# Entry
Amino acid sequence: MMERGKQKFQYLPKAHNNLTEEEAAALMPKETLEVKGELPCPCCGYITIPKGGEDTAYICPVCFWEMDAFLQSEDEPSDQNHGLTLNEARENYRAYGATLERLKQYCRPAKEHEIPHK
Ligand SMILES: [Zn+2]
# Structure
């Protein structure tokens, strides 16, 4: 669990960095049980992140970006996100509608209340 001197999520028994995509998808909140988002996703910008979710391994249901509380910058590779940086993930989301093209199948469109108001 030690990487670059950072200890990740040791207080969360189920959180680890080696989820297969299927396992990660299985951990995704079911549509009806989904927590209402209060904060914008750092990747797609929709209001999908529940309060406190940014500090856990919460996965955005719209773009599949997994929150990485340890990211220091938008150009730092995220272990939780296949080594993608936030900037790369944003580019992918614009191009494919997901942080990686093959993750698109797990994503859903943003809901009306998740669209940030300018
Ligand atoms: Zn997102």
About this structure: The pocket of zinc ion is lined by residues 41, 43-44, 46, 48, 60, 62-63, 65 (CB under 6 Å). Residues 96 and 104 are 7 Å apart (CA to CA). The beta strands are 2-3, 6-7, 39-40, 47-49. Confidence is low (pLDDT under 50) at residues 9-13.
